[in-house]
Amino acid sequence: MGTGPIRTALKVDFNKPAQEQPYLHNRWHPDIPTVGKITPGEVVKVECLDWTGGQIQNNDCADDVKDCDLTQPHYLSGPFEIEGADPGDVLVVEIQDVQPFEDRPWGFTAVFDKKNGGGFLDAHYPQPAKAIWDFEGIFCSSRHIPHVRFPGLIHPGIMGCAPSTEVLVEWNRRESELVSMNTLDRVVAELPQPKNAHAGSAPEDLKAKICREGARTIPGRPEHGGNCDIKNLSRGSKTYLPVHVPGAKFSVGDLHFSQGDGEISFCGAIEMAGIITFKFELMKGGIQELEMKSPIFIPGPVEPHFSPGRMLTFEGFSVDEAGKQHYMDVTVAYRQTCLRVIEYLKRFGYSGEQIYLLLSCAPVQGHVAGIVDIPNACTTMGIPMDIFDFDISPGAPVLKLDMGSCAYTSGKK
Amino acid sequence: MGTGPIRTALKVDFNKPAQEQPYLHNRWHPDIPTVGKITPGEVVKVECLDWTGGQIQNNDCADDVKDCDLTQPHYLSGPFEIEGADPGDVLVVEIQDVQPFEDRPWGFTAVFDKKNGGGFLDAHYPQPAKAIWDFEGIFCSSRHIPHVRFPGLIHPGIMGCAPSTEVLVEWNRRESELVSMNTLDRVVAELPQPKNAHAGSAPEDLKAKICREGARTIPGRPEHGGNCDIKNLSRGSKTYLPVHVPGAKFSVGDLHFSQGDGEISFCGAIEMAGIITFKFELMKGGIQELEMKSPIFIPGPVEPHFSPGRMLTFEGFSVDEAGKQHYMDVTVAYRQTCLRVIEYLKRFGYSGEQIYLLLSCAPVQGHVAGIVDIPNACTTMGIPMDIFDFDISPGAPVLKLDMGSCAYTSGKK
Amino acid sequence: MGTGPIRTALKVDFNKPAQEQPYLHNRWHPDIPTVGKITPGEVVKVECLDWTGGQIQNNDCADDVKDCDLTQPHYLSGPFEIEGADPGDVLVVEIQDVQPFEDRPWGFTAVFDKKNGGGFLDAHYPQPAKAIWDFEGIFCSSRHIPHVRFPGLIHPGIMGCAPSTEVLVEWNRRESELVSMNTLDRVVAELPQPKNAHAGSAPEDLKAKICREGARTIPGRPEHGGNCDIKNLSRGSKTYLPVHVPGAKFSVGDLHFSQGDGEISFCGAIEMAGIITFKFELMKGGIQELEMKSPIFIPGPVEPHFSPGRMLTFEGFSVDEAGKQHYMDVTVAYRQTCLRVIEYLKRFGYSGEQIYLLLSCAPVQGHVAGIVDIPNACTTMGIPMDIFDFDISPGAPVLKLDMGSCAYTSGKK
Amino acid sequence: MGTGPIRTALKVDFNKPAQEQPYLHNRWHPDIPTVGKITPGEVVKVECLDWTGGQIQNNDCADDVKDCDLTQPHYLSGPFEIEGADPGDVLVVEIQDVQPFEDRPWGFTAVFDKKNGGGFLDAHYPQPAKAIWDFEGIFCSSRHIPHVRFPGLIHPGIMGCAPSTEVLVEWNRRESELVSMNTLDRVVAELPQPKNAHAGSAPEDLKAKICREGARTIPGRPEHGGNCDIKNLSRGSKTYLPVHVPGAKFSVGDLHFSQGDGEISFCGAIEMAGIITFKFELMKGGIQELEMKSPIFIPGPVEPHFSPGRMLTFEGFSVDEAGKQHYMDVTVAYRQTCLRVIEYLKRFGYSGEQIYLLLSCAPVQGHVAGIVDIPNACTTMGIPMDIFDFDISPGAPVLKLDMGSCAYTSGKK
């Protein structure tokens, strides 16, 4: 009989550095000690810091974004031992709720400096920018991006079970290979990095090993999910995660109040600290039974609900800004799609950075439209017109509204 | 007062080869003669052949797919002069309805031979396959893929205004460059091809020029749209197309009864002949006013409506089948996502080709999920569980149903 | 293999009076001869006149409404023998499509004279009025009610199997009783009426009997459905109808391009002639198996799709216009709700009749909200704001638009 | 800058009788003292008891329902002074969130004794019954009604501004008249009742007046809303309430985790204590500007989302259980509709009381379908099939599942 309060399986502390909280960690490794046990069927709450561990402030200056130390993230809560979980099982994770902390009803979206993380459009927007979002129940709005307001599709950016040693070795192999073959003038992957690695409550020796070997939490990875940044893993969703180690060692973090498809500005969701409510089930031997190589999920039934007839939709193709034709490159096409939206919305007085931030965090729909018509991939981005308090439709007059400014670094603007 | 019947601006003839019908064409060129005039505000119907011009038959053998001549497509209806349209305008195309012909209530989906067109998964499914779909009002079902049935999101794969000479030159420049730089062991773009070029009613001299210069209709292109294969351009949608030549010279074709995001098997929609009802408006000087570089659109308000809680969703990442890590490659990630769905659904007894065909044409949702978490792009594909007449959810027992077979070439199976 | 055209099981003739078309009828009676046989599983088309049999014209005068002869309707197509149907079975009716005739792309909505049929608000709007709607594919608009446009949720107002003799006797018993007990100053039910009764192809003797006994088609009735006027019986819906006589004797008519919940102005839907596509199945012994006393249905998956956040919703309670408190009377409450919408929308310049017509036919949502809070029932009516081309939300400025006029009788306005 | 916690404008106390909490009240009267001031634009939280003030327990016996004292409800939180509100204004109430208390994640649905409140079907289900619902984030389930689970459309049953003296006098006039004319063998309205009246912090003299004159909170009323029990006043909704007294004197209570259209079992929602988050705005002179006689609202954009193709829908008509024909009586029709659903679902092993409880609280859709086809009104009730964990569709086999039992009184079962 569920008459009592729900157990909080992990509490975070806002008065202590994330590095000193032993129930957090920021690397993936099979040996990070568990922080507690959860029984399948039990409903539990887990608290999470924002992914930076509190590096970003609720103010009007993006210096904190510029200086954000990217060896630290993501601070994850866990890992939890799931009772009875064995390698080969599938862990079914039902997200029953996600909420910001009552006394921290705000979050942030940021464009990172091209030289410190960057983002999907950093060739165009290389400098840091930031927007603070205030939460009003299910809605959010920002003093940095006026005239928009939308309901959050609240979710965790990261969920996953710990890799086995074999899986970890494979990650490090293939990502090292990518790095070693890199010819681009940018960082293409983050390899294990002892600096600021947080191995939870691991004793010194073990910690050293974890710091040396532990995979970064930055990418999602097919074998376990991780930082997928899928906006639909919200309230009511069920995610099926492969189990690689005894006890599953499940971790969660990087809570988002809202995110657009692609999370294009990198720190692009509305990042927040908060509380997530879970119920777990186990599907014994589920990996083989489901022929599962990567996680699958079913979204919840209560997503924000916009009419298709109210989605202003932009097209983009795999011809880049320089007019160069790429072969079936969806990444190029999606970047072009984003740029088309920015050009369109700038007409209303927003700056490019404001729109870049907005497309990152608002519930925009990014679709792969056509992927077989050589040489052009075609993608679309749908913008729900209902999130604006003025008419953005193509026929509407372009009003002169005060669009204010997002936060920049102290040197700029 | 709209009391009379709607004017049919173009009729096709099923008893004549497409090449002999002067109101069709299969290349993009500014000089193809117009086939009629349409006034903004008028409601008109336009008939279209299927894109192959009738090369594919309603039977149980895929030899016609194997032998399909890819120098012919796509047979487009038009171009139409839109009264008053000038370069720089935007042509607003409202699709009021799309219907198959009453006496041809069927369509086809095909996997093309890897050596003749191929498709997104041709490394895995190199041989031709075909499914015939029967239309029952808004629904379709196939004897070649039992136990599925879904409402069509009926739409044209191709709409566009003629390129100007400048635009055409640019297309040919950049696509030639791609071809000349190609190191892949596959065709990366189709350059102008006189063989089987159809220049409508152009007299001989002009026809020769058009055949020599005219761009192929295979890819969508940012400047005008064309073969975008966007499944949401259905009944009630409004598309905003840039005008590049006097009179706009609008053409349409490649009607689809339904398509999934990506149209992955190349001839992946449910291809059909049919009738499309339009109303056009002009936005004078709209290109500059909207800062438009590529088409935009607003879908119609009557799309098939599935609960998010009924979308079984698969994840894929930019690590390929060989375990190679790619850098932020959405194309690779989407291919992996497709493969994950196929592995899952094969458990129920479908062949890989059947599922490949199904994902191409059913209303599956392909999203760009995360595109900033180096080095892995993450994409998702959502499958509406309601289109199956048995339970495909992860917990459901795997029944042994008779899944029959799709059509293969006479040599196979 | 469904490669051929769909069979049209019944064609109507626009050049002949409805009374002379032997495959039509306008009374419910078990002995009306069948007009053809349909096999379960077969897909068939059935043509229908509008319910008045063509009495209403596409013009700007409501004299035809005033003079409309209400002993004639509804002209139904059928009855059809469903092969193998026996009393006790359930006939499963899948509506695969509904379309207006190609050359009659229009329909009408009318307010009937209080003395000739009346309507739900005839105390307030006692005089005839009319609006003609033009169909543009899935959309409709009216020169008589400017600035609105919406997609149709197209459906038949009437479907049903013939009553058995026992059922018919019961209908006549209880409706006669109502009439005999009537103390209201209005017609409360229409009993069998030989005048203008149409018994299909019945020979004289039988015809006389049918005309004498046959139930009017005006009300829906629990035992078989009939004139339910349920707006959601649209494309893709499945209705489960009890079978009372051998062969089921299924009839259909009263096609609507669109209707609001309640169809409040009586001839309140957008009435049209058209073609409906069916597939039937039989559930042998289904009445007992499903414990069925009245029809049930599952709507189709492609209804027009408005965001709940775009539904302006009005409340009404069971206190009437005179301030009299009624006890839990949903009918009174719903009438009040309608009046509230009219008062609100009149602010924009519409006449009361225009709004009355609009609420009858647009896809408004009428809900029973609270029915237990003595003494007040509470109902709501939700208006999709997206159907207007100006902003009707409570905060919006009230623009002065030209709202024209609906059609009135020649004596009026 | 909303960086701090949201102010809680009113806290309730679970350790004290509701009658002793001076910031609660259970009658409507203009003179009940305000409990605090709220500024338009401010976001505030307000705590609420369940409507019975804690009379119903989380156990398996319905004796508490049988004995529930109906002179007490509803305990409302307030009234609040809204700064600047004057008679004639409209108070715009945005509900930003509604949540159960963290440590009370449960609610109840009850059938009241026919002699103590009764309900919409008390002729059929005259005895008390109860179901306890456990909340799991957005979902709820009940040990008393197995095999169903659904997301809550959480909302307050009651919101309203205080009546003016004139309005109050009118309420008492018309309801007294109803009572005095009553010929039914049941209570038709609850007139002012000093017993257990709670006038907030009113001093003795004033309290006596309020107890004597104060209107009961049981019905919703057109002039101010009140106990409308509209399930869609959930998160994100905006309600426009007429202001009748200086400062508006806004009160709220009767929180529901979920409710079906009609709330048919009287205490039919999932009743709970909880916390509601508001933001208010004022529309000065709004009553006249909007021609407002009753509240209006716009639902929030995040309602649970079921496909129309998954709504099993039942029809009912105004012919009662005894076969008596009623004239256009929607109340009778809706009762029949409810009975049809019960008959259908009993086939699966549920008791009538279980289904009665379920239809009261699950998100079922009750529509007025046809209201002009004399003599039969037609209503529908749509049941979302997705809330069951087994297949309830008409074709599905009827499995033998253990349906347990709801709670009855100690004397019964």
Automatic annotation (TrEMBL), chains A, B, C, D:
GO terms for molecular function: hydrolase activity, acting on carbon-nitrogen (but not peptide) bonds, in linear amides. It holds the Pfam family FmdA_AmdA. It comes from the Eukaryota. It comes from Tuber borchii (White truffle). This is Acetamidase/Formamidase.
